Amino acid sequence: MKIVCQSCRYERNYSVIEMIKLVKDSTCQQCGANLFEGRDEQPGDAGLEEYTEADLDVFDDAKAQVDLVECPRCREKQEPAPVCKWCVAPMGVKARLKKPLSILTRTGAEPSRVTKGLLFKVLAGIFFVYLLFVGGSYYFLKDSDVFRASRDFMKKSEPVRSVVGEEIKAGPFPLVFSHKSSRRRSYFYFFVAGDKGHGVVYLRLRKISGRWKVARGTLWDSNLKSYSLTPGKPGEEKRAKARVGSKYPGKDKRALNQLRDAQRYYNQRDYNKAVAKYTEAIETDPNNADAYYRRGMAWVRVNKKDKAIEDLKKAVSLSPDRTGYYYYLSWLYMSTQQHDQGIILLTELMRRKPKEANAYFYRSRGFHHKREYQDALDDINTAIELEPGNAKFYYWRGTTYKQMKVMNRAEKDYKTAIGLNPKYPSPYFGLAYLLELRKRYKESIAVLTKLIEVASREKRAYYRNQAYFSRGNMYRKNRDLTAAARDFADACTGGHRGACREATRIREKG
């Protein structure tokens, strides 16, 4: 309640307990005058006209209890009040008041309670609006194609049926959904429940050829355990069945299930279990080339490339028309310094498929590592003739020319590669390094600046940091230490350790 001193005009809001104290001492805190001198209203009766006699008895009892009381929850001491001012727990006075909230709201004695009530009302309003939004969305979406595709997918999904049950009794009810502006992508969070349990399903859908299809998904059960719902590519199961032991038709299904389990472990980066499952699939169907190929990939992940080479050789012998097996095996040969074996393998692939441009490209790299640059140049020229629009081929020919000290042609090929694919970062680095060798530092800085813009726009942090580091070196060779320190600092901020060392070195030199 607001009281104004008649002498000094000092205004102050008094709570109920402070009004009780005014019964004993009604002096103004500002000037010392009697606040109720010449007033008809007394402090003990102020603002209590609307309460019953029983309510007034409560205040009469509280007037005598001016000592501090202890809160039963937080054990903090304070003056008698309906609620604790520290933790807002109910105090002894509140149990005897019939209308405490109206007093607090009117007098402003406990603004925290009022604020808490307002916050509850705001949150309740937001939740009510959310329910209206989701309910309205469900009403309009339940007959849409995207919702129907999601519902059908969940009814047929094995993980959903194992967690929720054979029949979905509640849901799918959308919790969150979104449509992209192109109207070709959507994602949903669904609540589903059945006779076994309940869970939340996340689905991301794409519109392909006018039909909505699930691209990926995840299921969380009541224990927050996640299950992958991501389907395979269209026709993947049919192709996998064709690859699994055609000579052993009775074991096709079992081998296919083993391959699926192994691939799931591989995607979860549990490579040892993946190797074990691939081995089971090979034991079930010894003629499954894809099982050998995938087990070889898993061997590479656990740093056993010798076993991976044996598996890939077996895969190539079982399926000599699969070009991917040749490329992966040739990469294994090159990475283990067995360049001759890789070249022989790619030569066999070119004999089978003379117009396979990538085969010439990878064999060119093998000759390049052996420093047989003329043979490498002949192969990359053939690859460019077969695929003249491939920026990667021009970049590699530019690198070969640079090793052969034919700088003008190397520079031309690098620029051609950048023109064919401006987002391809390797030609920028190759051209910048070439210009550095020719001491054209300003042109090299311009090339790296363009690369930084492209990498920043494409959100490719690794190449952006590497470009900052390389441009810092160019600035330092151009004797612009301020710009060099700035670029090193930018690369260091992105996580480039070499740039951090160079920035510290420049800072120490002053």
Core attributes:
Serine Threonine Protein Phosphatase 5, Tetratricopeptide repeat, Nuclear Transport Factor 2, Chain: A, two-stranded antiparallel ribbon, 510 residues, alpha+beta, 5-stranded antiparallel sheet
> What structural class results from the helix and strand content?
alpha+beta
- Helix count from the secondary structure assignment: 22
Q: Would you report the number of β strands?
A: 9
Q: What is the CATH topology assignment of the domain at 142-228? A: Nuclear Transport Factor 2, Chain: A
CATH class of the domain at 142-228: Alpha Beta
Low-confidence stretches: 40-51, 62-66, 93-111, 233-251
Return Rg in Å.
39 Å
Nearest-integer average pLDDT: 77
The largest beta-sheet arranges its strands as 5-6-7-8-9
The CATH superfamily title of the domain at 142-228:
Mitochondrial import inner membrane translocase subunit Tim21
DSSP helix fraction: 55-70%
Task: Determine the N-to-C terminus distance.
Answer: 68 Å
Q: Proportion of β residues? A: 5-15%
Q: How does the major sheet shape up?
A: 5 strands, antiparallel
The CATH level-2 architecture of the domain at 142-228 is identified as Roll
Shape: flat
